C-alpha cells in the first residue's frame, strides 16, 4: 500500500514572524496577579456578572478614579505588600462604593487557600461586552453613552493586560505552580511599606479595636500618673489619640487621655476642653439589663456621674494652674451635686479638694464649711446658711460611716462594690495616719517613728493590683515628712523620707513610682541634709531627683525640685555674703513659692540697707497661713533688732509668740524665744538674755538647724563673756557647726570673741592665741569679705 501523503498547510506563525514567541511578555509577580484580579473585579462591578447586569455602572469620574489607582500600581517598580494592597482596595471601595473590596478579597483569598486555580485570562465578554441602552439599567447614562465600554483597545491598560495574558499562556505548569506558591507566600507575609504611612494607615496593634484602645488608654493613664518616664512620649500619645478619635468613636476615654497629656504639656485651655468633651460623651450609657430596657422602653440612660465628678476634675486643673477662685467654685458645685444625689464618695473627695484649695489660698486649715473666700458676709443669714450646709454634710457623713454596714448601699451598681470597698479601706488607712500625725505619736528624738510605721501598714488590701493602697500610704508618708520638717524635727524627717524612698521598689503589677509623693519625700530629705550643713550630699541628691523627674516629662514634680534648689542655694550663698547670686535665686521663687520669695527678698533688702522697702514688702503680703504669719512677724522682729528698733521688734515678737502658743509646731516656741534672747543681748541686757537662752538648750539640740545652733551658741558665749564667765565651751560648739567654711562671717565673729578673750586686758590673756586669731581673721576677710549679719537670720 503506497504511503499516505499529508499535504502541509501554510504556517502562519512563520509567515508573521512567530509573534507569540517573540512578543515581549509582562513578567508575572504576586503584585501583578493581584492587579489582574482587581481589574477583573472592577470589570464585573461595571458590567455585572454573567447574565445579571450591573444596575450602577461607573461614571466618568469613577472610572477616572479607578484607572488612576490602577496606573499607579502598574507603573510602580517595587512590590506592594498584601496589607498595602488591601488598603488600596479599601480606598477604592470608599470612592466607588460597590463592594469592590469584598469581592476582590474573596477572590484573592480563595486563590491563596487553593479553592480556585490561578487563571489570568479574561473571558470574551471583556473584549466584546457593550452595554445596550435600557431605561431601567442605564438611567445614569446620557445619549452619547449608548454603547458603554470598559476600556479602549488602544489604551496602555489594554496593552498591559494582553502582555500579561501572553506571558501566562506560555508559562509551563511548573511555572504556574511556582506563581501560585509565591502568591500564597505574598499574602501571608507581614511587611510594612511606605504606603501604610499615608491615608488609611494600618492601625497599631494596641489600638486596632475599641477594646484594646481602652486597655491602652487605661495603661497609659496609669503610667502618666504613677511613672511618667515609662509612658509613651506625649507627642506620640497625642497622635494615637487622634487615630482613636477617627477610627473608634465609641471610645470616649480618649478625651480624658488628651486632658491628662495636655496638663503635662501645660496647656490648661485645651485640657479643660477635652475634659468637657469627655463628660459630654459619657453623659449617656447603654442600659445594662434587657429587662430594664423593656420596662423603661429606653436603650440609653443618663449618667449623672458627670455632674458630680466633672467639676472635681476641672477644679483640679484650675488649682494646678493657679486659678483657685474658679477651683473653689467648682468644688463647691461638686459638693452640692453629691448632696443632691447622696453620693458620699464624691462628697468626701470634693471636701478634701476644697480643703487643699483653701490651704493654697492661705485660708483656714481643715475648713469644712462651704463658703466663698472672696466674699466676707458676717450677717446672720450667712451664718445660718453655713450651718445648714454643715449640718447636711455631717448628716451624710454620719449615714455613710465607714464602720457601718450601711455603706454598701452607696454603690450604684454591682461593679462599684469592690471599688467602693477598696476606697473606704484606703481612706480609713489614711485617716489613721493623719490621726497619728496630728497627735504627735511619731515623736521620738533621733529615732524613726515605730508607731507610725505600724499605723501605715495597719490595714492591707487583700488585692491591690492598681496600687491604690500604696498610693495612699505614700501620700500619708509625704505629708508626714513635710509636717516633721515644719516642726523642726529634721532627724526624724530624714529617716522617714529615706524610708519612703528606699521602699519605692518596682513590682510585677506596678513600676517604680514617680509621683509627687516621692518628690516631696525627696526634697524633704534634701532639706533635712541642708539643716545639718551637708550641702554636698544635698546637691547630689537634687541632681539625682532632676534625673528622675525631668521638667519636660513631669513638670508638676519638677517644680518642687526647683523650689528646693533655689532655697538651698539662697541659704548657702547668703551665708557667704554673695547677695547678687541670692537675688537670682529669689527671682526664681516669685511664681512658685510667693511666701518664700517675700521672706527672702525682704531679708536681702534689709541686709543691703533698704529697710523701708523690706518692711513694706512684708507688711503688704497677705498671708493667713499660721506658720507663714509667724515667720513674717519673726522676720520683722529680726530686722527691727538689727536696726535698733526695739519697740517694733518687741511688738512683732509678741505677736509671733501668740501664734506659737496656739500651734502644734514643735519648734515654734523655740524660734520665737531665741529671737527674744538675741534682742535682749543687743540691748546690753546679758543677764535677762542668758536666763531666756539657757532654758532653750534642750530644744536647740532637738529642733535647731546648724544655723540656729550656731547663733544660739555664739549668743550664749557673748552673754557669758559679758557676765565675766568662761564662754569657750559655747564658742567651741559654735565652731563645730560651721566647719568647712559653711559660714565664714560667723567664723570671723568667733575669732573676734577669741581676740577679746585673749587680749592683754581680756579674761584669758594670751598674746600667741590673740595673734593667731587675728591672722585667721585677716585670711578669712581676704577670702570672704563682709560682716556677719547673724541678727537678720
UniProtKB/TrEMBL annotation:
GO annotation terms (biological process): anaphase-promoting complex-dependent catabolic process; cell division; positive regulation of mitotic metaphase/anaphase transition; protein K11-linked ubiquitination
InterPro entries: Apc5, TPR-like_helical_dom_sf
GO cellular component, one term: anaphase-promoting complex
Alphabetic keyword roster: Cell cycle, Cell division, Mitosis, Ubl conjugation pathway
The protein's name: Anaphase-promoting complex subunit 5
Native source species: Caenorhabditis nigoni
Amino acid at each position: 500500500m503506497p504511503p499516505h501523503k499529508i499535504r502541509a498547510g501554510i504556517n502562519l506563525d512563520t509567515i508573521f514572524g512567530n509573534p507569540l514567541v517573540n512578543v515581549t511578555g509582562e513578567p508575572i509577580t504576586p503584585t501583578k496577579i493581584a492587579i489582574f484580579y482587581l481589574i477583573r473585579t472592577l470589570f464585573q462591578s461595571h458590567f455585572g456578572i454573567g447574565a445579571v447586569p450591573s444596575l450602577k455602572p461607573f461614571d466618568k469620574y469613577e472610572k477616572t478614579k479607578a484607572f488612576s489607582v490602577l496606573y499607579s500600581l502598574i507603573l510602580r517598580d517595587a512590590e506592594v505588600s498584601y496589607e498595602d494592597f488591601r488598603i488600596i482596595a479599601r480606598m477604592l471601595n470608599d470612592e466607588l462604593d460597590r463592594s469592590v473590596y469584598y469581592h476582590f478579597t474573596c477572590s484573592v483569598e480563595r486563590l491563596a487557600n487553593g479553592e480556585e486555580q490561578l487563571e489570568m485570562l479574561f473571558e470574551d465578554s471583556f473584549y466584546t461586552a457593550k452595554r445596550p441602552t435600557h431605561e431601567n439599567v442605564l438611567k445614569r447614562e446620557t445619549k452619547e453613552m449608548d454603547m458603554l465600554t470598559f476600556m479602549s483597545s488602544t489604551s496602555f491598560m489594554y496593552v498591559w493586560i494582553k502582555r500579561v495574558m501572553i506571558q501566562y499562556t506560555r508559562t509551563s505548569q511548573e511555572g504556574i505552580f511556582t506563581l501560585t506558591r509565591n502568591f500564597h507566600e505574598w499574602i501571608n507575609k507581614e511587611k510594612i511599606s511606605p504606603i501604610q504611612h499615608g491615608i488609611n494607615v494600618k492601625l497599631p496593634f494596641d489600638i486596632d479595636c475599641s477594646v484594646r484602645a481602652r486597655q491602652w488608654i487605661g495603661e497609659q493613664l496609669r503610667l502618666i500618673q504613677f511613672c511618667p518616664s515609662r509612658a509613651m512620649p506625649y507627642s506620640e500619645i497625642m497622635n494615637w489619640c487622634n487615630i482613636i478619635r477617627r477610627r473608634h468613636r465609641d471610645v470616649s476615654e480618649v478625651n480624658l487621655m488628651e486632658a491628662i497629656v495636655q496638663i503635662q504639656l501645660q496647656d490648661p485651655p485645651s485640657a479643660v476642653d477635652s475634659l468637657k468633651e469627655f463628660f459630654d460623651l459619657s453623659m449617656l450609657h447603654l442600659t445594662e439589663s434587657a429587662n430594664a430596657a423593656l420596662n423603661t422602653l429606653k436603650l440609653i440612660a443618663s449618667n449623672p456621674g458627670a455632674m458630680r465628678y466633672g467639676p472635681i476634675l476641672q477644679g483640679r486643673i484650675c488649682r494646678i494652674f493657679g486659678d483657685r477662685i474658679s477651683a473653689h467654685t467648682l468644688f463647691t458645685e461638686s459638693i452640692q451635686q453629691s448632696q443632691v444625689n447622696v453620693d458620699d464618695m464624691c462628697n468626701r473627695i470634693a471636701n478634701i479638694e476644697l480643703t487643699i484649695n483653701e490651704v493654697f489660698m492661705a485660708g483656714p486649715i481643715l475648713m469644712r464649711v462651704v463658703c466663698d473666700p472672696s466674699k466676707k458676709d458676717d450677717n446672720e443669714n450667712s451664718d445660718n446658711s453655713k450651718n445648714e450646709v454643715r449640718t447636711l454634710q455631717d448628716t451624710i457623713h454620719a449615714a455613710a460611716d465607714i464602720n457601718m454596714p450601711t455603706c454598701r448601699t452607696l454603690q450604684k451598681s454591682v461593679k462599684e462594690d469592690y471599688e467602693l470597698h477598696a476606697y473606704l479601706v484606703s481612706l480609713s488607712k489614711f485617716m489613721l495616719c493623719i490621726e497619728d500625725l496630728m497627735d504627735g505619736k511619731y515623736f521620738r528624738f533621733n529615732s524613726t517613728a515605730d508607731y507610725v510605721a505600724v499605723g501605715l501598714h495597719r490595714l492591707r488590701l487583700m488585692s491591690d493590683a492598681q496600687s491604690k493602697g500604696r498610693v495612699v500610704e505614700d501620700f500619708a508618708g509625704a505629708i508626714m515628712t513635710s509636717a516633721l520638717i515644719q516642726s523642726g524635727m529634721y532627724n526624724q524627717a530624714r529617716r522617714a523620707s529615706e524610708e519612703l524612698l528606699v521602699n519605692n521598689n518596682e513590682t510585677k503589677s506596678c513600676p517604680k513610682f514617680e509621683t509627687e509623693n516621692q518628690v516631696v519625700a525627696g526634697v524633704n530629705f534634701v532639706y533635712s541634709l541642708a539643716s545639718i550643713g551637708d550641702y554636698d550630699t544635698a546637691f547630689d541628691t537634687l541632681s539625682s531627683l532632676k534625673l528622675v523627674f525631668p521638667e519636660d516629662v513631669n513638670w508638676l514634680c519638677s517644680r518642687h525640685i526647683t523650689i528646693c534648689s533655689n532655697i538651698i542655694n539662697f541659704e548657702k550663698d547668703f551665708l557667704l555674703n554673695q547677695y547678687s547670686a541670692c537675688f537670682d535665686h529669689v527671682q526664681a521663687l516669685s511664681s512658685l513659692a510667693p511666701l518664700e520669695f517675700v521672706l527672702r527678698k525682704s531679708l536681702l533688702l534689709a541686709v543691703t540697707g533698704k529697710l523701708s522697702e523690706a518692711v513694706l514688702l512684708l507688711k503688704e503680703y497677705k498671708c493667713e497661713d499660721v506658720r507663714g504669719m509667724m515667720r513674717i512677724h519673726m522676720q520683722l522682729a529680726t530686722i527691727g533688732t538689727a536696726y535698733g528698733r526695739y519697740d517694733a521688734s518687741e511688738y512683732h515678737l509678741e505677736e509671733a509668740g501668740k501664734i506659737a502658743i496656739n500651734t502644734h509646731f514643735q519648734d515654734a516656741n523655740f524660734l520665737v524665744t531665741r529671737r527674744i534672747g538675741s534682742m535682749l543681748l543687743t540691748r546690753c541686757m546679758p543677764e535677762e538674755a542668758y536666763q531666756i537662752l539657757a532654758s532653750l538648750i534642750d530644744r536647740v539640740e532637738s529642733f535647731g538647724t546648724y544655723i540656729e545652733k550656731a547663733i544660739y551658741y555664739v549668743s550664749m558665749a557673748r552673754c557669758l563673756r559679758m557676765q565675766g564667765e568662761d564662754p569657750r565651751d559655747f564658742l567651741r560648739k559654735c565652731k563645730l557647726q560651721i566647719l568647712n567654711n559653711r559660714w565664714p562671717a560667723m567664723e570671723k565673729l568667733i575669732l573676734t570673741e577669741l581676740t577679746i578673750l585673749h587680749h592683754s586686758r581680756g579674761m584669758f590673756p594670751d598674746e600667741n592665741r590673740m595673734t593667731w586669731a587675728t591672722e585667721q581673721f585677716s585670711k578669712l576677710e581676704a577670702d570672704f569679705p563682709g560682716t556677719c549679719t547673724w541678727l537678720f537670720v
